[in-house]
Amino acid sequence: MANSIDAGKLTDRVAALVEAARRAGADAADAVVVVGRSKGVSVRMGKVESTEASESEDMSLRVFVGKRVASVSATTGSDPKTLAERAVAMAKVSPEDPYQGLADPTLLTKAPRDLDLFDTTEVSADRLKEDALAAEEAALAVKGVTNSSGSGASAGFGGLVLATSSGFLGQYVATRFSRSASAIAGEGTGMERDYDYSSRQHFADLDTAQDIGRKAGERAVKRLGARKAATGAVVVVFDPRVARGIAGHLAGAINGAAVARKTSFLRDMMGKQVAASSITVTDEPLRRRGQASRPFDGEGVEGSKLTMVEKGVLNHWFLSTSAARELGLTTNGRGSRGGSSVSPSSTNLAIEAGAQSPEELVKGLKSGFYVTEVFGQGVNMITGEYSRGASGFWIENGELAYPVSEVTIASNLKTMFLNMVPASDLDRNFGTAAPTLLIEGMTLAGS
């Protein structure tokens, strides 16, 4: 992709901002520029519905005066001296925060690694249009598909340049390409919709437009004739598309900031059994071509691979510097930059694969519910209560028997994690990844 960031120009700007902050009276400071470029095309029924292109270049400065902190945002063309003086003046009248500050200089990475996150392939708007049309055409060619909800393709990149007064100066940029399709099957009130998509950091790694469209169409057709299932206790098997959401709930529950605020249902569980012994969860920021990889975090710290949960036992929180200090710990390089603020987040998180294939998990069930989609906001991260609308397929005698919709599944995430069995089909091509998951003891509300 030709339009990469001008790293030299931007590193000069953030370095100048940090120096201006020190001259204005800051005890410490960091400055960051977050850059993004993207373009995309969406089509429906053979015609272009929209084309879009966006560019962003956001700069922010964070200053520390004693235990006081303030931050300001501006354009990259702003005068460093004026910006720094304003930030320092704000900090001097801010309340003290004993946990804020830069990362320990001994933790800063000296030589950020090349993780192969940037693809130089230049994808034209015409190619994006061709891919979107090809995906839709493949979806419409599936027998039983009656309409299209649209298809799309996009290309872009995002980059970060960071400088700190403790001596760190680094930058990285990552590309992102995607294709998607959404198909409708059936007629009238019996219509069903489904989708497929692919998102990768290298263009050549994308699933083909034809495969994406075909899968979207086939999934939509399989949902025809959906009905409700009977209310009662049920074994639920989560398709990987939905299982990734379960992994995301786990990541939120072991976020150090949530633990410090006492808003996580796992806040008192460090070193204890939080999941079944078959569950191991890893987080790997330095994986090559990883969707959520980064050579350093939002504070300049290189994070290493961590086994967050090992055989069901919780080993780590996701920690930034401030969250770690509040918990009496040390950052593990999971600080994510959101403009001028830094908060903990996962990177390439994965619930590791189990021994059985998805087919073997299903085959062992006399009855159950295979969930392919959930909706609604019924997840309470303080108590762990889980209640979501769901659709999928009813399992009878080890086979997917018929489609199911308009039901609700409920339990508590604490119980769900302890009754979870992972299948062997882990796909790591997602920032948050999970295999098919079987969870016993859930409640289904249907007919």
Give a written overview of the molecule.
With 447 residues, the protein is α+β, with helices and mostly antiparallel strands. The protein folds into three domains: 213 residues, PmbA/TldD fold, CATH 3.30.2290; 114 residues, no CATH class; 99 residues, no CATH class. The protein contains nine helices and 19 strands. The strands form four sheets. It has a six-stranded antiparallel sheet with strand order 3-2-1-4-5-6. Strands 7-14-15-16-19 form a five-stranded mixed barrel. A hairpin with a 6-residue loop joins strand 5 and strand 6. Helix 3 runs parallel beside helix 4. The protein is globular and about 70 Å long. The N and C termini lie far apart (53 Å). The mean pLDDT is 95.
What spatial form do the alpha-carbon principal axes imply?
A: globular
Mean pLDDT: 95
- What distance separates the N and C termini? 53 Å
Give the helices and strands as they follow along the chain: HEEEHHEEEHEHHEEEHEEEHEEEHEEE
Give the class-level CATH name of the largest domain.
Alpha Beta
> If you consult CATH, what is the topology of the largest domain?
PmbA/TldD fold
Work out the count of structural domains: 3
CATH superfamily of the largest domain: PmbA/TldD superfamily
Rg (C-alpha, Å)? 24 Å
What is the fold's blueprint, element by element?
Blueprint: H1 7-23, E1 28-44, E2 47-65, E3 68-75, H2 80-92, H3 125-140, E4 145-164, E5 169-185, E6 192-200, H4 209-222, E7 232-238, H5 240-253, H6 256-260, E8 281-283, E9 306-310, E10 313-314, H7 321-326, E11 335-338, E12 341-344, E13 349-351, H8 358-363, E14 367-375, E15 385-396, E16 399-412, H9 413-418, E17 420-422, E18 432-433, E19 437-445
Parallel strand pairs: 7-14, 13-18
Antiparallel strand pairs: 1-2, 1-4, 2-3, 4-5, 5-6, 7-19, 8-9, 8-13, 9-10, 11-12, 14-15, 15-16, 16-19, 17-19
Helix pairs in contact: 1-2, 3-4
